[in-house]
Amino acid sequence: FQRLTSVPDGLIHVPVTPFTANNNIDLDTFANVIEFLLRQDAKSLCVNLHLAENLNLTLEERKQLAKASVEITAGRTPVIIHVSTPGTDQAVELAHHAEEIGADCVMAIPPYYWKPPQEGIYEHFAAIMSATELPFIAYNSPLFMDGVGVSTETLVRLLERFPQFIGMK
Question: Annotated catalytic, 67?
């Protein structure tokens, strides 16, 4: 497949994060989950989304899952790495890592918990996109983010400045 130039059509599959009895990530089961999703004709995967325990994982665990997902899929479907964190520096670090491991795209929500103004959202997304050439998807979910969402004006500014900004989901 070719590099993403738009948000993938249809469902973006989100593999769950399995754990061992002693609360370590179970990479063998994770590989089985990804293989199952690929057998279901997954058109793309998004790794470390909130549905997959990312709020409970360390940055190193998130990197471990991101790297494993790219290796396991081996180019069979695009891998989108969710890089959201409450702060910009860690999101940038995760975006750098996604590019280093050969991911196909990064996705982020506006910084959560702090309820930033639109200029803060713009600067957060701009920092992530400035850190990598990977395509970028803004995940806009104000209903679940306590009213924090991306305005039309912020979206237009980002689209005008960053060619790798491929849209919102």
Answer: no
